[in-house]
């Protein structure tokens, strides 16, 4: 027998309850198809005969499978299995966690620590750590791992939340290839059948789903069939159920699901049909043109206007003057609004990158949407806020006429008006995104810096005693110097945050923790908020506010950095407390070594925006993080920045 067949026999022999195991349950626990399990039974039958056992595997159609044999034979079989299972100890951490999660979510089993230790040949501490990571991942889905003495470990939560978690299972393992992950659960025939049915549904409804939406719908439907077989069905209490049934999409969707019943040998309950319809209606479609103002409901328009207005006020960026922002948000929010309203979770695969690249915009929009939750009647998930960030960042680029490596520069040329104009024209033609503020003489440089605030200087002559980066070029600006300027701009980007001047402005040596051992985000937030409160930066409510904020959306932004913060109403004066850990701590699904506890009151402050940019850049500078982790004193750290 192979490893999988050994596991199947082990499950059946160890099943001391009167419960009959279904083929579906066994297939799910092993992440394989039912057809594979049926074929494995034949091999197990041959092995039992070969080993001269009288025991046998009893299969009853539509009922399940059980092992029938004497207690003596059970002990002998288990002994043989244990002798042949040293390979189990070599299973990877990922395989072990996947198996535990499958038992808890997909099978709904109650297991004991001892069972898991025996199954995987690992210590109690390893299993406890696995359960801690699994619990942390499941928390945002509204699910909890409950452990009770003499009862065991089980998963607590609603069926629709379990479905949502199952559909996002692959993200726990950072698996990008959705089909390859779920291919372990479903047969090729099942996958092919459902894909074909969804394509027909898409065509009949005259929709064009994005590739991600299409795959999500395929695997949502496959998971639904699996749960119905287990009698784990959705129960909805929709006030608008009759309105949904009146939609043209309802009858089409219902007919397509009914066509699948004979293939999967199930019946789709009415609530399951409505739940699937909600997913169909809320999925993203390919961009098929400009959406008109009237395509979205007025309540969505009102929300968008308020969101844009508040963001403009908090950031001091005139988003409310960008008409394209309203149009793009209206198109985006049509399906998003329905999806969130009905609790349909949509994982944003770019969320971590968005948090790391745009921490200031994300924090601002998170605060705004938290304030608007009561108005709209539901909570905006962080994944959806991540998508909003991209719309506002695109608006920022349009408003500032930015594209890529965009900079502001002054040109210094001492060879007369004609040559100066020629040089300026050549640079503008080659660097469309570079804004040349003016062309000045050498003695006008400092005045221009104060007045125009350029990022750097392009000069035909050497300059001394200037505070800005300078690139020296020929007045004729030949081809070679185009590449030189490109490299200079790129290098300037990398060196832009080398001194962390904005961060240092908010930091005090009394607000630095080095070398302490603190477990978990809550303890770290409590310690840092304690320093902030003691030194007059925040009031006593800030710590509770920050912990609640963290529970809604993890503030880890990648690069071993976290930026927890609370509501500005509890900030007395702006500041930042820092904790640096030699050994990274678990922060939800990430490892964190540097924690910036932010106390921000004025989000319009340019220094605050600059500080967020510096922190974002720090996430790309792992060498500096490693240097900080080695530091012994607060003074040493403070001096280094």
TrEMBL record:
GO terms for biological process: phosphoenolpyruvate-dependent sugar phosphotransferase system; regulation of DNA-templated transcription. It comes from the Bacteria. Residues 505-641 form the PTS EIIA type-2 domain. Residues 407-497 form the PTS EIIB type-2 domain. Residues 184-211 form a coiled coil. Keywords: Activator, Coiled coil, Repeat, Transcription, Transcription regulation, Transferase. GO terms for molecular function: protein-N(PI)-phosphohistidine-sugar phosphotransferase activity. PANTHER family: CRYPTIC BETA-GLUCOSIDE BGL OPERON ANTITERMINATOR (PTHR30185), TRANSCRIPTIONAL REGULATOR MANR (PTHR30185:SF12). This is Uncharacterized protein. It comes from Jeotgalibacillus proteolyticus.
């Amino acid at each position: 027998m192979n490893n999988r067949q050994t596991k199947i026999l082990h499950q059946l022999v160890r099943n001391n309850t009167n419960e009959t195991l279904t083929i579906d349950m066994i297939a799910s626990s092993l992440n394989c198809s039912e057809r594979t399990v049926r074929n494995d039974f034949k091999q197990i039958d041959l092995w039992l005969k070969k080993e001269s056992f009288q025991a046998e595997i009893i299969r009853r159609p539509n009922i399940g499978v059980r092992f029938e044999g004497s207690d003596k034979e059970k002990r002998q079989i288990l002994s043989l299995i244990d002798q042949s299972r040293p390979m189990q100890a070599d299973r990877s951490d990922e395989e072990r966690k996947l198996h535990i999660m499958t038992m808890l979510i997909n099978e709904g089993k109650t297991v004991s620590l001892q069972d898991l230790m025996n199954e995987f040949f690992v210590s109690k501490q390893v299993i406890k750590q696995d359960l801690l990571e699994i619990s942390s991942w499941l928390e945002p889905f509204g699910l909890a791992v409950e452990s009770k003495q003499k009862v065991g470990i089980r998963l607590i939560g609603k069926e629709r939340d379990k479905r949502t978690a199952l559909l996002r299972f692959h993200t726990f393992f950072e698996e990008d290839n959705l089909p390859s992950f779920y291919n372990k659960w479903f047969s090729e025939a099942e996958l092919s059948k459902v894909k074909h049915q969804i394509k027909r549904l898409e065509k009949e409804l005259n929709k064009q789903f994005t590739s991600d939406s299409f795959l999500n719908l395929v695997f949502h439907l496959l998971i639904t069939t699996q749960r119905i077989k287990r009698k784990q069905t959705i129960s909805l209490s929709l006030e608008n159920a009759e309105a949904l049934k009146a939609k043209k999409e309802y009858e089409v969707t219902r007919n397509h699901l009914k066509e699948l019943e004979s293939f999967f040998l199930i019946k789709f309950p009415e609530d399951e049909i409505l739940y699937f319809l909600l997913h169909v209606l809320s999925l993203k479609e390919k961009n098929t043109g400009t959406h008109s103002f009237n395509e979205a409901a007025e309540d969505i328009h009102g929300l968008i206007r308020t969101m844009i207005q508040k963001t403009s006020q908090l950031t001091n960026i005139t988003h409310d003057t960008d008409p394209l922002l309203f149009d793009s948000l209206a198109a985006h929010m049509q399906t998003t609004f329905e999806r969130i309203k009905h609790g349909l979770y949509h994982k944003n695969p770019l969320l971590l990158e968005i948090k790391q690249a745009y921490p200031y915009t994300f924090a601002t929009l998170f605060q705004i949407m938290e304030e608007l939750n009561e108005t709209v009647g539901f909570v905006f998930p962080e994944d959806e806020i991540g998508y909003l960030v991209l719309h506002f960042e695109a608006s920022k680029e349009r408003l500032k006429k930015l594209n890529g490596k965009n900079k502001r520069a002054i040109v210094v040329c001492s060879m007369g008006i004609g040559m100066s104009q020629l040089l300026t024209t050549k640079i503008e033609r080659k660097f469309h995104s570079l804004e040349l503020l003016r062309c000045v003489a050498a003695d006008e440089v400092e005045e221009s810096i104060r007045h125009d605030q350029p990022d750097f200087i392009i000069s035909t002559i050497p300059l001394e005693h200037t505070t800005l980066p300078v690139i020296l070029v020929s007045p004729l600006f030949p081809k070679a110097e185009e590449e030189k300027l490109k490299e200079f701009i790129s290098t300037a980007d990398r060196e832009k945050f080398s001194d962390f001047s904005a961060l240092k402005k908010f930091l005090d040596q009394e607000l630095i923790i080095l070398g302490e051992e603190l477990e978990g985000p809550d303890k770290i937030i409590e310690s840092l908020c304690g320093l902030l409160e003691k030194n007059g930066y925040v009031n006593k409510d800030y710590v509770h506010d920050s912990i609640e904020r963290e529970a809604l959306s993890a503030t880890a932004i990648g690069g071993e950095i976290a930026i927890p913060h609370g509501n500005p109403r509890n900030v007395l004066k702006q500041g930042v407390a820092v904790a640096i850990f030699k050994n990274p701590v678990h922060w939800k699904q990430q490892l964190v070594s540097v924690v910036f506890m932010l106390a921000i009151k004025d989000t319009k402050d340019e220094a605050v925006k600059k500080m967020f940019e510096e922190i974002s850049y720090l996430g790309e500078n792992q060498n500096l993080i490693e240097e900080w982790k080695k530091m012994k004193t607060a003074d040493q750290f403070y001096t280094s920045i």
